[in-house]
Amino acid sequence: MIIDITALQQRFISIRENKTFETFVIAIIIVSALVIGAKTYTINPQVELLFKVLDIAVTLIFLAEIIIRMIADNSLKRFFSKGWNIFDFIIVTASLIPVDESEMALLGRLLRIFRVLRLVSVIPELRVLLNAFVKAIPRMGYVSLLMFIFFYIYAAMGSTFFSNINAGLWGNISISMLTLFRVATFEDWTDVMYETMEVYPFSWIFYLTFIFIVAFVFLNMMIGIVLEVLQREHEQFDRESGEGEAGEVHWIKEHTESMEQRMERMENMLIDLHKNKQSNTE
Amino acid sequence: MIIDITALQQRFISIRENKTFETFVIAIIIVSALVIGAKTYTINPQVELLFKVLDIAVTLIFLAEIIIRMIADNSLKRFFSKGWNIFDFIIVTASLIPVDESEMALLGRLLRIFRVLRLVSVIPELRVLLNAFVKAIPRMGYVSLLMFIFFYIYAAMGSTFFSNINAGLWGNISISMLTLFRVATFEDWTDVMYETMEVYPFSWIFYLTFIFIVAFVFLNMMIGIVLEVLQREHEQFDRESGEGEAGEVHWIKEHTESMEQRMERMENMLIDLHKNKQSNTE
Amino acid sequence: MIIDITALQQRFISIRENKTFETFVIAIIIVSALVIGAKTYTINPQVELLFKVLDIAVTLIFLAEIIIRMIADNSLKRFFSKGWNIFDFIIVTASLIPVDESEMALLGRLLRIFRVLRLVSVIPELRVLLNAFVKAIPRMGYVSLLMFIFFYIYAAMGSTFFSNINAGLWGNISISMLTLFRVATFEDWTDVMYETMEVYPFSWIFYLTFIFIVAFVFLNMMIGIVLEVLQREHEQFDRESGEGEAGEVHWIKEHTESMEQRMERMENMLIDLHKNKQSNTE
Amino acid sequence: MIIDITALQQRFISIRENKTFETFVIAIIIVSALVIGAKTYTINPQVELLFKVLDIAVTLIFLAEIIIRMIADNSLKRFFSKGWNIFDFIIVTASLIPVDESEMALLGRLLRIFRVLRLVSVIPELRVLLNAFVKAIPRMGYVSLLMFIFFYIYAAMGSTFFSNINAGLWGNISISMLTLFRVATFEDWTDVMYETMEVYPFSWIFYLTFIFIVAFVFLNMMIGIVLEVLQREHEQFDRESGEGEAGEVHWIKEHTESMEQRMERMENMLIDLHKNKQSNTE
Questions:
Q1: Distances in whole angstroms, Cα of residue A114 to Cα of each of A119, B212, B222, C172
Q2: Chain B adjacent subunits, 3+ CB pairs under 8 A
Q3: Burial profile A213-244: b = 16 or more Cβ within 10 angstroms, e = fewer
Q4: How far C9 CA lies from chain A's nearest CA (Å)?
Q5: For D100, phi and psi rounded to 5 degrees?
Q6: How does pLDDT run across C151-206, given as a tens digit for each residue?
Q7: pLDDT in tens, A90-140
Q8: Which chain B positions have a beta carbon within 8 Å of A261's beta carbon?
Q9: Nearest to C246 by CA among D247, A213, D111
Q10: ipTM of the complex model
Q11: CB 3.0-4.6 Å disulfide test: which of B261, C24, C105, C176 passes with C159?
């Protein structure tokens, strides 16, 4: 019996590593995505029935796939240690919940949409890209906090002074922050400004300083990411190939090491010669 | 007879390499471009006739030019091995199709407009620039795919939730993707948001997360290209001139090599001296 | 008595350095920020009373905190030598001014909003970020001046030619500058252009040259900051870790130094040997 | 008589180099700029008279200043060899033309506005900045040409297909190019697109490809400038200070040179020793 499970496991591992299996899963995800897209058009009942059948088929195939991968991994612990597996598991199991009840229908549809994201977890190149994004997030944390503080202060000022002028834009601090985000994207920001300038003629100072600060903070954010990506890619390039300036520097370093060892040998011989000579001449 | 063809070929090669011939072709392309531009203005019949004559003349000159270049190249295989030649050939032969029939008239006019692109294939500096663009395309492939997946998911969500609010903006998934592209360019995006916020007050989360993700993905795309161009230009600069830091590193590398050889000679002499000494003292 | 003060000072220093005290101050600032935000909503009188009490409490805690930090520092001179301390002192003392009088009420509310900025002075990571911004300001001085000159010239031209067309946009030089800033952010700039093009059909030259110049100056400004930040971060990285290309270059430099010293020793020995030999052979 | 002129010249050179004179000229330019700005406001006749007097005074002072600088320079050739001097000369002499005639009034006012640009020619830091801009122009030449070709092709397509839909936006090729520039700045571009999509439902392809191409070309333009500025600043930094990685590389290069010379000396001595030994043992 134990052998049976190991054999099954072995077989499932070979299925998981199989290129055709991978392509099949990608195809299923794309079919699932197309069904989601097609559903947004007005469709006749027959096609709708087909879509329902397809939806159930996709759900079952996903379930089978995840069970195969679970068994292929030796333990559940090992399976759930990878973030992408957890993501897949949630998407697949959540799809099993029946969505006919009007209450849960919306959530069910949302989860079916998120299935498209499985494309990212299946294609390795996309997984690498998304991992790079996730790694850059902590670096942007403090910059985002600083930006949020500036938004908060300007929103507080905005709703203090301008709430009587236009409650729809400056009614309270959260509406004001949304209005300021709009100003930051330059979306009809002059309409907002001209309105308040009628009451406070100097309120353009408020908008111009805000735009300068936000543009400045945002630029630094961008630069931070650029620098991080630059350094990481450069170092990787250093290690893998020996090309370019960095490669030449590395070559020089290694040859300097061998030159030093040769010099040490030479100096020792010279010392020996020198001593000899001195004892000779004595 | 064989000699005749070779002589003709030799002559055509000399024509092709001739600076005056190149300038003449550029002039013809510019004339062709100006005629295309002038046609968009309302013109009297006489000038229109002139334009028709000019159009035929340009087509014939282009045909003559491409035949000269075809014969100048030894074989058709060699001629069609260059992408730009294929491009020129399609543009020129397609112009030969008569455009008087109402059916093909539109296509014919389009092809005449694309003739202006021949300017890119004729001027070497522009060809280099466009080649750089083409080379950068594969690198952007996966980033574009990731961006498309995000657009698709958000469009699916958008048409699921908002299609009842404004069918013109969220009617189906393709309309929704166009609307999202509009949001990504910040073009009247608040009008779109305010409309859906009346029904779903928290739909601002949908727009703000979308803007952040797209801006982030787009920024990384830009950085990727910047890095690629940076590294390529830097390495070229390395090889051609010996200036700057990279040049100094290269200088050091070469001199380290000659130092190592000298040291090897010196060590050999020292070993010789040392052995001699030892045999002497023995 | 003298000992008492020193003991008190010692105690206050230990309070200041205490992690719990720091967290407590941050919590108070956040409470203060939330009160400011909550005030922008319509609130019933009871809550308003609570907010007044909270406001007084926050003011007193801030006062206590700044006095503790003042005494902890040996002298007032030392306390006021740090820019952030001056900033904190102004915010805290200005809050003590009663704000019930209608005259000063607005200023009082503004100062309470600026209290949120104390979050920047308390959290070290944010202080580092803001310091980086402040350092970049002088570098942008001349670029800003150049940009201002271009704005001024275009605004003078604008109000000279277009003031009769739309006094609301081009009435005088300051209104014109605001209009040009709007054009620089691409906010409904074509509406502005189409209006003046009806009178001066070639006024599109005015707008297009302006957009190109401003985009160009602005880009250079951005690049300047990028370069500065790049070089500063790179050099810091050089000193602290010995990784990457810069680390290898540093390693080579140090080993070149020790190689030179060894060579000097070797040359001296050789000179000695050589002299010896010559005196021997003579 | 000859001595007199030399003495005068010497005196004028000392005036030109004088810091107070420079400050005075800057002050006069700022006064001139303020007068230009003030004129855009509605002013009463008395102040207008004052402005006229000020204008004449500024013109005369500028004339005196340029004559001083002309005489201070040994020859007119030398004076006109500097671009900035030519610029100053044109601005100053053109101001001498009376502007009362209605014909020339506009040009005269324009020239008075351009006087503000003299601030750039007088302040050295601004002159350096503007020179950097001017240097970057040729590098952008071919990129601009490529961009223009794309604009031209899209404009030709636009006016061919869309001129019947909205002649105000696509009437002829020049109007179309202006419309496309508007699309490139994302200014109400969806209004333009939705209009043509009613007739040609697939015209969104036209707009989206255009936006992608322009954004791409523009980005490469930016990168080109960034790279150029980067390399130039880096090399200058190399030469002037010996800091950072580039400084260390330079240090290594110089020390490698001295090491090589020392090695040559050492090898010669070794060869000498070796020969000696061989002749000894023979």
A1: 10, 18, 27, 55
A2: A, D
A3: bbebbebbbbbbbbbbbbeebbeebbeeeeeb
A4: 33
A5: -70, -30
A6: 999 999 999 889 899 998 999 999 999 999 999 999 889 999 999 999 999 999 99
A7: 888 887 776 665 666 777 778 888 888 888 888 888 887 787 777 777 777
A8: none
A9: D247
A10: 0.80
A11: C176
